[in-house]
């Protein structure tokens, strides 16, 4: 946390001048910078114009209790990591302060000064570890977001290629096969049945290609693109899995942010698929509405439910749904009881925009 050019600064807040000097001397011998304040108000004023990396804070100050100073600094947006200094017999209060955020505590006994640098270094090491973990978590989330964005872009690209290139070529072949079938039929050629079969297979292939293209690039860049895509999703779920899947749309729902609309569609797609594949649901309802302040997407089913919904044990699908919601500034909630189905709701405030914008 420090370097020769920028050593750690410790602010000692204690109303005993002699003890404060001893503390500062012990810390300076270890390479720390120090400053001192004899009251809570003095500490707060000093922090308005100076920077400190940590407080050594006496529990009992002449003008306020140590906890009151911590709350004052938090309210002013100047909260700092702190270690509590307490007299013998007040250890219980110090432990309570640790529950409220203190990194450690020191008891004023015969070995007090000797232990000050050790406790400070231990607390700084803890802060450094927490900082590294937070940075690693931030990097992990950033990489997950980039992977999801790359995956989405690639799916959209493949979908466009299927529709614009392969789909058009297959459509051209279908027209040629149809014309050939008609020519053979006009001459009563024996190859007419085979030609008809080829034509029919090509038509089915064109239909399948278009369906694949819609699945990879499902939401058109139009205000009502999400509603249309969800209607198609409900129809495909009904056809493929022989279930009752319907979309209920309250009022007019238009979304200009295609990125957010695509993420909402993927959440609905994952939730509906999970309901059928894992919950054995027979009825799935997709609900989309635009209220005064937010879009709300809800997917409910009558499947087996998910039992205890422990975030640490959620499958990849649930984690991705949560992540997609977070990427666009939304919030995903899940309600499930064994045998009573599952309800997944994603709420997206109108003011929020996708993190990819």
The helix content is: 40-55%
Number of domains: 3
Number of β-strand runs: 10
Mean pLDDT rating: 84
Descriptive tags:
3 domains, alpha/beta, 357 residues, disordered C terminus, five-stranded parallel sheet, Rossmann fold
Topology summary:
Elements: E1 9-13, H1 17-29, E2 33-37, H2 40-49, E3 54-58, H3 66-75, E4 82-86, H4 91-99, E5 104-107, H5 112-186, H6 192-216, H7 225-241, E6 244-250, H8 258-277, E7 283-290, E8 294-301, H9 316-327, E9 331-336, E10 342-349
Parallel strand pairs: 1-2, 1-3, 3-4, 4-5, 6-7
Antiparallel strand pairs: 7-8, 8-10, 9-10
Helix pairs in contact: 1-5, 5-6, 7-8, 8-9
How is this structure best summarized?
The chain has helices at 17-29, 40-49, 66-75, 91-99, 112-186, 192-216, 225-241, 258-277, 316-327; strands at 9-13, 33-37, 54-58, 82-86, 104-107, 244-250, 283-290, 294-301, 331-336, 342-349. It has 357 residues and is of the alpha/beta class.
